[in-house]
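Forgive a beginner's question, but might I ask you for the amino acids of a protein and the tokens describing how it folds?
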Amino acid sequence: MLGERLSRREERRRRMRRRRAIGLAILVVLAAAAIGVAIVSAGRTSATRPPVAKAPERTAPQPKREESRHVAPPKEIRGVHVPVGDGGGGRLEGYIALKRLGLNTIELDVKNEDGRIGFLARVPLARSSGARGSTTSLGRPPRASTAPGST
């Protein structure tokens, strides 16, 4: 009988220790979550302060574009792949001159192997992502004629 009481008491103590440990673990997790939320929300403005309006960005007036027209693709595509390094310094015009030999397509790769654009792009995403930059002698987007029959 005495041994039975001790085992019941021991079992009760074990349960209490287990419950305390679980309760303590839950408190630690809740405290960590509260600290995490406080850290994340510290960088944000509070709901009592109105957000500050940003001044609108000024953009240069865009020149009027000619309306594009659909051109049927040729039956046979004969083209070359031109890397961004070969697009500047008059070399692109040399590729365009190959039309007399049957060339009808030029694929100009405007990005190099590390993802940088080969000319100074005005696209905000290119600026913010670090892809913008003149890595070659292009300096600006190439202006080759896209009209059918032109050289």
